[in-house]
Amino acid sequence: MRDGGIGMNKKYIVRLTDDERQKLIHLTKTGKAAAYKIKHAHILLQVDANGPNWSDDHVAQAFRCHGNTVRNTRQRYVEHGLEAALRRKQQVRPSRQRLLDGAKEARLIALRCSQPPTGTAKWTLKLLADTLVTLNVVETISYETVRQTLKKTRSSRTCTSAG
Length: 163
Fold this sequence. Notes:
Largest sheet: none
Radius of gyration: 25 Å
Oligomer: single chain
Structural class: mainly alpha
């Protein structure tokens, strides 16, 4: 299905070279890449002005993705090349700042390795979170953030397990 002409409201026109087309076909047939990368390859093959030249809406419907995925893949190909179009867009900066930087993370681990407060048998995640707030290490923190931070350091054999 052609969409009736190359210039139909398309700002970014994809024109694959023979080498790029072969690379994309190989990528889609082997299936040995991340699913999003294979989907982006399929998208590029279908929006190619020298090939099927499907409309963005038709491609989005065929590959069950949002129209923005098609438009963004097309734009990254035109502006930055094939490799950029196959990758996900990188964030300029993280959506959120990390709550525990290296020094605060070290404080958490040192706290976990210390003796628990009197009256408790061991450190719990909630107790660790509450103690970090009490010690003014952070203004607020959830026990889930404490859990994820400690999970990264589980290979450490320096202290006993926390609950």
